[in-house]
From TrEMBL:
SUPFAM superfamilies per record: EF-G C-terminal domain-like, P-loop containing nucleoside triphosphate hydrolases, Translation proteins
Signal sequence extent: none
Lineage: Eukaryota, Metazoa, Chordata, Craniata, Vertebrata
Compartments where found: Mitochondrion inner membrane
CDD domains named in the record: EF4_II (cd03699), EF4_III (cd16260), LepA (cd01890), lepA_C (cd03709)
General function of this protein: Promotes mitochondrial protein synthesis. May act as a fidelity factor of the translation reaction, by catalyzing a one-codon backward translocation of tRNAs on improperly translocated ribosomes. Binds to mitochondrial ribosomes in a GTP-dependent manner.
Source organism of this protein record: Fukomys damarensis (Damaraland mole rat)
Protein name, per record: Translation factor GUF1, mitochondrial
Length: 668
């Protein structure tokens, strides 16, 4: 557990090395707003006008000391993407129009849900006090499930804008993201956003920032990203407080692949940060991971769309296309170097650690190959998903996928449907349990002492196991004090152990609890939000494993096991969870022509039961006589609807029933 005392005066060590005393006392201070000259001398106009660039820009004009690489980090909805919009406008990267809303959130799922799920890079060209700067901005997601995107993005940066909502103040992901930046030794610029809100209290938030992060309140910049108020001070602070990258242009090429996307025509587009040397079209480069050699077809910057350039130089962030076609060729964290000069690879990243696993199967096995190719392409765009082939008697051939959380799983599923037109069956998400084997013979058979169980169907029998282990996480909750009692009671029902309690101001409390991961993965966040009227926030980090008494529970419909709902539960929760799943299924299963028995079972012992009465739905019931085409249409729609059904025995279950049942499962 971290303590503030242990962090010491970190800001003096980490925040200040670049800033000179003259450069930064007491921001915001009067600033000569960078002027756009009549001749349109914004660097971006000359370099990369979004309309018709005739010549590829020469990036050598930006010396290393003219470059700033930074990320925007914050709690969900505190205004990262809106601030990014204003920065893009202010630097002339995009035209100022009313329609600039979350310009960098390009995915359909991001626009529909109003959240960022994928970090996005944009190179901004900015003329400040008569000097041209290249500012590489990375907008990151806020939700805990996507914090891997944040930590990867930070590897390409020297500083961050830590955005905090002036009304909500510091929230759980503010704390988590701050410490990611702190541990990466980046300069942190606190930005208090939404000062235009009626209930904004920037002074209170300043004090919280000082108390929790030990950052002097003078360092905070108070803005309204929505209205554009004071956003120019943010750019000034980026230039003055964030150091340029420490790189060497004369050394041989060393480029870090920190993200990648897949384009079906051009193959892999790798986002790279150049630590040494330079790279241009025609260069031969080698992947340190695969040792394969490629010829570079295109290099460029993201402005924010791809803008080819002549070369990329050390210190710059851009993209590179080199004919990588296979998903395994563009590993995130890989180092690319010149084939003439092998170099020591960069440290790369710790691989993402999946928190939940779920089975994924095509609804129809004839769709297997399509789904396989869709999963391969999407995992290239989202490398934090782990994929293992799997099969089940009932569901056929499929995969076991590992996700960083339930929202991540839903977003991945939605992207598969929207971007690749596929439809899948998902099974109950489960956390990665472990079983310590009980005998030398078994250890020899499994070739390991401990086995990790990512599929409840493979849960080993108690006779083989010395002890079961469950993953635990250290959760941070920030809440108005009035909800503390209720939240503590909720945590207790989730088998959590309190580790820390601290007032971050007069009426806000930060709680730290050690939670079994399976107690929070499905619905903890929803429960927390509803009992705190939406005011409490939650974030967690991995904290290893602990011993647990676990059992496997089956759910049956008329005697047939529903593979989607097989689950591993803690012994003390089995009855309650079984009963709840049966009740939820009863409420959400459509009635059919016959009675359905819903049962929860541990081995052969039935622990809960519900019944759905018989019923017949006649879609033509309201079509009295008349129009045959209308009847045909209704019948056609009914047939199409059936594609979304899954047959268990002779029972037809809508696909979304499973998700509904799981999402509303009170884990008491
Ligand atoms: N009143 C007001 N609203 C703002 C301001 N900045 C952002 N918002 C609103 O806050 C909401 C969230 O803004 P986003 O920019 O999407 O927040 P985000 O941090 O990028 O969100 P995630 O990517 O989901 O974490 C949107 O409705 C914005 O219009 C501001 O300065 N004032």
């Amino acid at each position: 557990m971290w303590t503030l005392a242990g962090r010491g005066c970190w800001h003096r060590r980490v925040l200040l090395p670049w800033a000179t005393a003259a450069a930064r006392p007491g921001l915001p201070r009067p600033l000569p707003i960078p002027s756009r000259t009549p001749a349109g001398s914004w660097a971006s106009d000359r370099l990369c006008s979004s309309v018709g660039l005739k010549e590829k820009p020469d990036m050598s004009r930006f010396a290393v000391e003219d470059i700033r690489n930074f990320s925007i980090i914050a709690h969900v909805d505190h205004g990262k993407s809106t601030l990014a919009d204003r920065l893009l406008e202010l630097t002339g990267t995009i035209d100022k129009t009313k329609n600039n809303k979350q310009v960098l959130d390009k995915l359909q799922v991001e626009r529909e849900r109003g959240i960022t799920v994928k970090a996005q890079t944009a190179s901004l060209f900015y003329n400040f006090e008569g000097k041209e700067y290249l500012l590489n901005l990375i907008d990151t997601p806020g939700h805990v499930d996507f914090s891997y995107e944040v930590s990867r993005s930070l590897s390409a940066c020297q500083g961050v804008l830590l955005v905090v909502d002036a009304n909500e103040g510091i929230q759980a992901q503010t704390v988590a993201n701050f410490f990611l930046a702190f541990e990466a030794q980046l300069s942190v610029i606190p930005v208090i956003n939404k000062i235009d809100l009626k209930n904004a209290d920037p002074e209170r938030v300043e004090k919280q920032i000082e108390k929790v992060f030990d950052i002097p309140s003078d360092d905070c910049i108070k803005i309204s990203a929505k209205l554009g108020t004071n956003v120019e001070y943010v750019l000034q602070a980026v230039i003055e407080r964030i150091p340029p990258p420490k790189v060497h242009r004369r050394n041989p090429l060393r480029a870090l692949v920190f993200d990648s996307t897949f384009d079906q025509y051009r193959g892999v587009i790798a986002n790279v940060a150049l630590f040494d040397g330079m790279v241009s079209r025609g260069d031969k480069i080698v992947s340190a991971h695969t040792q394969k050699t490629y010829e570079v077809n295109e290099v460029g910057v993201l402005n924010p769309s791809e803008q080819p350039t002549l070369k990329l130089y050390a210190g710059q962030v851009g993209y590179l296309i080199a004919g990588m076609k296979d998903v395994t060729e563009a590993q995130i964290g890989d180092t690319l170097y010149s084939h003439k000069h092998p170099v020591e690879p960069l440290p790369g990243f710790k691989s993402a650690k999946p928190m939940v696993f779920a089975g994924m199967y095509p609804i129809d096995q004839s769709e297997y190959n399509n789904l396989k190719s869709a999963i391969e392409k999407l995992t290239l765009n989202d490398s934090s998903v782990s994929v293992h082939r799997d099969s089940s008697l009932a569901l056929g051939a499929g995969w076991r996928l590992g996700f960083l959380g339930l929202l991540h799983m839903e977003v991945f599923n939605q992207r598969l449907e929207q971007e690749y037109n596929t439809s899948v069956i998902l099974t109950t998400p489960t956390v990665p349990y472990k079983a310590v084997l009980s005998s030398a013979k078994l250890i020899k058979e499994y070739r390991e002492k401990e086995i990790t169980i990512i599929n409840p169907a493979q849960f080993p029998d108690k006779s083989k196991v010395a002890e079961y282990l469950e993953p635990v996480v250290l959760g941070t909750i920030i809440t108005p004090d009035e909800y503390t009692g209720k939240i503590m009671a909720l945590c207790q029902t989730r088998r959590a152990v309190q580790k820390h309690l601290m007032f971050i101001d007069q009426n806000r409390v930060m709680l730290k609890y050690l939670f079994p991961l399976n107690e929070i993965v499905v619905d903890f966040y929803d429960s927390l939000k509803s009992l705190s009227s939406g005011y409490a926030s939650f974030d967690y980090e991995d904290a290893g494993y602990q011993t647990a008494e676990l059992i496997k529970m089956d759910i049956l419909l008329n005697g047939n096991i529903v593979e989607e709902l097989v689950t591993v539960v803690h012994k003390d929760k089995a009855y309650a969870v079984g009963k709840t799943i049966c009740e939820r299924l009863k409420d959400s299963l459509p009635r059919q022509l016959f009675e359905i028995a819903i049962q929860a079972a541990i081995g052969s012992k039935i622990i809960a039961r519900e019944t759905v009465k018989a019923y017949r739905k006649n879609v033509l019931a309201k079509c009295y006589g008349g129009d045959i085409t209308r009847k045909m249409k209704l019948l056609k729609r009914q047939t199409e609807g059936k594609k979304k059904l899954r047959k268990i025995g002779n029972i037809e279950v809508p696909k979304d029933t499973f998700i509904k049942v799981l999402k509303t499962q009170p884990n008491k």
